[in-house]
Design a protein that fits this description.
With about 240 residues, the protein is an alpha/beta fold. The chain contains eight helices and ten strands. It has helices spanning about 20-30, 65-80, 115-120, 130-145, 170-175, 185-195, 215-220, 225-239, and strands spanning about 15-20, 35-40, 45-50, 55-60, 85-95, 105-110, 130, 150-160, 175-180, 195-205. Strands 5-9-8-6-10 form a five-stranded mixed beta barrel, surrounded by four helices. A hairpin with a 2-residue loop joins strand 3 (about 45-50) and strand 4. Helix 2 packs parallel to helix 6 and helix 4 crosses helix 8. The chain is globular.
């Protein structure tokens, strides 16, 4: 048992899916996994372990924002010997060619958070990047499941603030940033600290520039393509 996760050693699989919303974790457990056990209800941040087509996998809610995600990632890597975490979340698109319900892979994560800068005492601007093996595997699986034009790989913005009118999103998009979410940079930093693997795989929930959006219920329950991509990635890398 760790501070925020009530699981015992061995309760959590080496590969963990990492949605921000604990109800998305519940949805995945109920709709994709078999032989499910719930190992965590602390702070209602649900965690489950089950099997997907015979492969053991866990799904753990992370909460919103870099600080929350880093707490759960740290405990999963440090206390439970998790080897890889795949964030499955929502992202707000910023580039014109990225559309609602498209899939975005965070190859790297730009951030306005001071957490990463403070980790290195201001000496460097640490580049928070995904694990290539996870990214490569998930990308090729996605290419078999969804149209190529709906898949985007590149830089994302992990923002400290959800409501941030001051951020120049048009300039960021011009520099190639695909969209904005709130956790990837922190997850990548913790994975780097522990020499483990991490990837942010997100579905576009809304478009920051055009205003197009999905409902909260859709974000919670219907982003099933990214869930299947993540699970099939786990299956392939566990073989």
């Amino acid at each position: 048992m760790s501070v925020h996760i009530a699981a015992k050693k061995g309760d959590i699989a080496p590969f963990v899916l990492f949605p921000g919303d604990p109800l998305r974790a519940k949805f995945i457990a109920e709709n994709f996994l078999e032989d499910v056990t719930q190992y965590n209800t602390v702070r209602n941040m649900f965690g489950y372990t089950g099997t997907f087509e015979g492969v053991r996998v866990s799904v753990q809610g992370s909460g919103m924002g870099i600080p929350s995600a880093m707490i759960y990632a740290e405990e999963l890597f440090q206390e439970y010997d998790v080897q890889a975490i795949i964030r499955i979340g929502s992202i707000g698109a910023m580039k014109e060619e990225v559309h609602v319900r498209d899939i975005v892979f965070g190859q790297g994560a730009t951030t306005d958070s001071s957490i990463l800068r403070n980790t290195f005492d201001g000496q460097v601007h640490f580049s928070a990047i995904s694990d290539f093996e996870l990214l490569d595997t998930a990308y090729h699986i996605a290419s078999e499941l969804v149209p190529a034009e709906t898949i985007h790989v590149g830089n994302v913005l992990s923002s400290d603030r959800f409501y941030n009118e001051e951020m120049d999103k048009i300039k960021l998009a011009r520099y190639g940033v695909l969209g904005v979410e709130m956790e990837a940079a922190g997850l990548y930093a913790v994975a780097a600290k522990h020499n483990r693997k991490a990837l942010a795989l997100c579905t576009v929930s809304d478009h920051i520039i055009t205003g197009e959006e999905t409902t909260a219920e859709e974000r919670q329950t219907t982003f099933t393509q990214m869930m299947e991509i993540a699970l099939r990635t786990v299956k392939q890398l566990s073989a």
